[in-house]
Write a structure and sequence with these properties.
four-stranded antiparallel β-sheet, 3 domains, 8 helices, 19 strands
């Protein structure tokens, strides 16, 4: 016997079973497993033999057989009637050392750890036209799920007329819920092979029914048909989003999120005020609006940076293996400071050269472009770190537009500081000294 662990075969145990066929097997939920057996060697005075072998978590081989015979290498515990129909999709561990299985009389039995086999519930369907096709046990909720089909004889063959029924039982055998499963369009109700291939999975209240040409899912909202690949992808994506939301809520730190949010506002306001103070307007009269170019440059820079910012800021918290998100971050990291710097520089230079704002004209300068670009680069780094702290710790998903707006406002604020420090009207110094001075100030 070997166990498959992460794709590798690990030796488990060895037992000699001459003349005996094994299978299928089902876990017991406690580290061991059960395997069905039957005699295959037809010697003199051959007698049929069916039974169970239980490999326990302690490494013991325990056996029950309908004839009371024992197989070499096993410990005969007792005699037990073999009543089940050994099909893998009709067997499920009970997580208490035993297992559930559909019997040859279409009744679900529970084979307990002591080898006894009893009908699981008196509330399960028992009719000549009923056939149990699959079972599954939800260990988290201690519930047994059952899929059955009903048919009638038609032209000498079984013709399914009601499709599938779904039942759920609690651990004591009481029936909790029962309903018919709505079959999707295009699935023929009289296709016997279709229903013979059905498999059932249940975990944490979610139920999946898998068969040829169909995949059905049941949640608290009812049944959903996921037979088309697009619907399957949609369901997987929805579950991923829900899982990410749970993880985000568990890892949230409201203090850090609040600090990042108010910090972004603080940096933006402080940088705009600083740029207004740093920008000289020697020829302004006291009643002139001296902060006009700064505010306009900040506003235009913000608007210019929102679109590339929607690629950068929302994807900073994506999974490390998300290649598409990584590409968006790279594009946004280059495009955001470039767009903000150009928007800040053009609007601020144009506004400061306006005769209605300045007593004399002003020429567009390369050093002020360099200052705006330097401030935008530094602003992108600071805003990126701040927006990542915000999205990682707020406990819920933040709208990408909001992240892009907050990030670009910070970037544009620092960009106008760089523009103000390198503006030709700041002093009579040459452009290179002015640019060096601006970088020192930043």
């Amino acid at each position: 016997m070997v166990a498959l662990q992460q794709g590798r075969e690990e030796p488990l145990a060895t037992v000699a079973l001459p003349g005996v066929a094994l299978g299928p097997a089902v876990t017991d939920g406690e580290g061991g497993f059960w395997v069905m057996l039957r005699r295959t060697e037809r010697a003199k005075n051959f007698k049929p033999m069916r039974g169970y072998i239980h490999y326990t978590s302690e490494g013991a081989w325990e056996m029950w057989s309908d004839s009371g015979e024992v197989v070499e290498g096993t410990n005969l515990i007792g005699r037990s009637a073999f009543v089940i129909n050994p099909e893998p999709r009709k067997m499920a561990p009970d997580m208490k050392g035993g297992f559930f299985a559909v019997g040859r009389d279409e009744i679900v039995y529970q084979v307990k750890a002591d080898g006894s086999a009893d009908a699981f519930s008196t509330m399960q369907p028992s009719c000549a036209d009923c056939r149990q096709v699959a079972i599954a046990f939800d260990a988290t909720r201690r519930e047994l799920h059952l899929i059955s089909a009903q048919w009638k004889e038609s032209n000498g063959r079984r013709s399914f007329v009601r499709g599938l029924s779904y039942m759920r039982f609690d651990a004591t055998g009481g029936r909790v819920f029962a309903e018919d499963i709505p079959l999707p369009p295009g699935i023929k109700g009289d296709d016997v092979n279709l229903f013979d291939s059905i498999k059932l999975f249940a975990e944490a209240g979610q139920v999946w029914v898998l068969g040829r040409q169909m995949l059905l899912h049941r949640s608290n909202q009812g049944w959903s048909w996921l037979g088309e690949s697009g619907r399957v992808a949609e369901m997987i994506e929805r579950e991923r989003v829900e899982r990410d939301a749970r993880e985000r809520a568990e890892n949230a730190n409201p203090t850090i999120a609040t600090a990042a949010l108010y910090g972004s506002f603080g940096v933006t306001i402080a940088s705009v005020l600083a740029a207004s103070v740093l920008t000289p307007y020697d020829e302004f009269s006291p009643e002139d609006q001296q902060g006009g170019p700064v505010v306009l440059g900040w506003a235009i820079g913000t608007m210019a940076g929102i679109l590339p910012g929607m690629l950068l800021y929302p994807n900073l918290s994506a999974a490390p293996d998300d290649e598409l998100a990584g590409t968006f971050v790279l594009i946004g990291a280059v495009a955001t400071p470039l767009a903000v710097a150009l928007g800040t520089w053009v609007s601020a230079e144009a506004a400061s050269a306006d005769a209605s704002w300045r007593g004399t004209g002003n020429e567009f300068s390369l050093q002020s472009l360099g200052g705006a670009a330097g401030g935008a680069v530094i602003g992108t780094v600071i805003s990126g770190l701040t927006m990542k702290l915000l999205s990682d710790n707020i406990g819920e998903e933040v709208d990408p537009v909001i992240l892009a707006f907050l990030g670009s406002t910070m970037t544009a604020g620092l960009s106008v500081v760089g523009w103000a420090l390198t503006s030709e009207d700041r002093s009579g110094e040459d452009g290179f000294n002015n640019l060096a001075l601006s970088l020192i100030h930043i």
